[in-house]
Design goal:
The chain is an alpha+beta fold. It has helices spanning 6-11, 18-40, 45-79, 82-92; strands at residues 2-4, 100-102, 112-115, 118-124, 131-136, 144-146.
Length: 148
């Protein structure tokens, strides 16, 4: 089971978009080259066809990037709730924040909180303004703690 500490939650950024940006730049350059080639050789239709293909691929990658950015924004809003939650749990149980780890990066009902060596299940209210912790026992005691 993977748990996340406060440092990971504060620094966690899902910015693995370099590939999409590189592909968009490549397709934009190829589209520009095909437009130049087509204007020079109007009778050779392969440049027009390749230009259309590259334009469609560029539009697809722009759409994928937009969808990714939308989902990353939603996930960032949800994970921004975890930092105050971990701090509140640490304060309520009179432990340091480094002793509190959670098994999810988003605050949802049913996540597991590990305080020192004890596991608790989180029960959130409907508005998410308060929580209760119920003692839980995990089946797999092998734990991986993500800290970076």
């Amino acid at each position: 089971m993977t748990f996340y500490n406060l440092t990971y939650l504060q620094n966690h950024q899902q910015t693995n978009t370099t590939f999409n940006y590189v592909m968009m730049i490549i397709f934009a350059v190829l589209l520009l080259v095909m437009i130049i080639q087509y204007t020079r050789h109007r009778l050779v239709t392969k440049y027009r066809d390749l230009g259309i293909i590259f334009a469609l691929l560029l539009v697809i990658f722009i759409g994928l990037q937009y969808t990714y950015l939308e989902s990353a924004h939603t996930q960032q809003a949800q994970s921004s709730q975890m930092v105050p939650f971990v701090k509140a749990v640490a304060k309520d149980h009179h432990v340091k924040t480094k002793d509190v780890v959670v098994n999810s990066t988003t605050l949802t009902d049913g996540i597991i909180v590990r305080i020192k060596d004890q596991d608790y299940r989180v029960n959130l209210s409907e508005g998410g303004n308060n929580y209760t912790l119920t003692r839980a026992h995990v089946i797999d005691h092998r734990v991986l703690i993500q800290s970076k």
